[in-house]
């Protein structure tokens, strides 16, 4: 009976808490769905958990402030600040380094941004949370499409089949750069043949040297078995 009376006397607070956590789940899932759709390591569930957890931290901060501020000096922003700085460990887990290319930075940034959305919802700043979610989503979807179009126009891809040897990637990169080309990205693609690896070099197309000259220079390397440009 005491528990029922306690809940009824605090019904407004708990209704607000449920609404905030539900919104955090909705907005975090909205961003997470986009990340999972493009097969990123942190997807739907991860973004929901980050957003809901961040919202709960701020709800807890608000609860502590209203119930204990008369007894001790409390700062309602202290716990939220810990979330903003602490979420970095989770973002770091999504970053993968492959050769000289790095993947996962955008997903790490989206996790950090979603934690900030959760903090805004948790303290009741709904308009800021919704506007930020819209901008985050537009950045992930629209900006990515625009960037992809620009990359296609300004880049060309060169595939090199070569023997698996220590320092081979750096050696090939130096050959390409010495020819006057700019390497924008390097990717590794698994090969069906044993002892062979396939390296994909994404080059800036605005170069004076021709692709044929670059291919000829690469083929001078004894370890290289095949070179071709993506059509």
TrEMBL record:
Transmembrane regions: 13-33, 45-66, 111-143
Keyword set, alphabetical order: Cell membrane, Membrane, Transmembrane, Transmembrane helix
Record's bilayer topology term: Multi-pass membrane protein
InterPro entries named in the record: MgtC/SapB/SrpB/YhiD_fam, MgtC_SapB_SrpB_YhiD_N
Location in or out of the cell: Cell membrane
Pfam families the record matches: MgtC
Domain MgtC/SapB/SrpB/YhiD N-terminal residue range list: 21-147
Main location: membrane
Gene Ontology CC entries for this record: plasma membrane
PANTHER family: MAGNESIUM TRANSPORTER YHID-RELATED, PROTEIN MGTC
Family: Belongs to the MgtC/SapB family.
Protein name: MgtC/SapB transporter
Biological source species: Ruminiclostridium cellulolyticum (strain ATCC 35319 / DSM 5812 / JCM 6584 / H10)
């Amino acid at each position: 009976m005491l528990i029922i009376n306690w809940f009824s006397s605090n019904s407004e607070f708990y209704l607000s808490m449920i609404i905030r956590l539900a919104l955090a789940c909705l907005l975090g899932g909205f961003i997470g769905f986009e990340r999972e759709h493009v097969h990123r390591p942190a997807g739907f569930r991860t973004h929901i958990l980050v957003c809901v957890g961040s919202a709960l931290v701020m709800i807890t901060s608000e609860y502590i402030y209203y119930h204990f501020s008369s007894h001790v000096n409390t700062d309602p922003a202290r716990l939220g600040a810990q979330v903003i700085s602490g979420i970095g460990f989770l973002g770091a887990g999504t970053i993968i380094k492959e050769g000289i290319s790095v993947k996962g930075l955008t997903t790490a940034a989206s996790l950090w941004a979603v934690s900030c959305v959760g903090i805004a919802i948790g303290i009741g700043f709904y308009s800021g949370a919704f506007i930020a979610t819209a901008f985050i989503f537009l950045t992930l979807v629209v900006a990515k499409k625009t960037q992809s179009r620009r990359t296609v126009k300004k880049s060309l891809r060169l595939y090199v089949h070569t023997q698996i040897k220590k320092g081979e990637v750096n050696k090939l990169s130096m050959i390409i750069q010495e020819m006057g080309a700019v390497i924008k990205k390097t990717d590794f693609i698994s090969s069906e043949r044993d002892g062979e690896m396939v390296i994909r070099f994404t080059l800036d197309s605005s170069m004076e040297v021709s692709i044929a000259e670059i291919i000829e220079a690469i083929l001078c390397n004894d370890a290289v078995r095949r070179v071709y440009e993506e059509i």
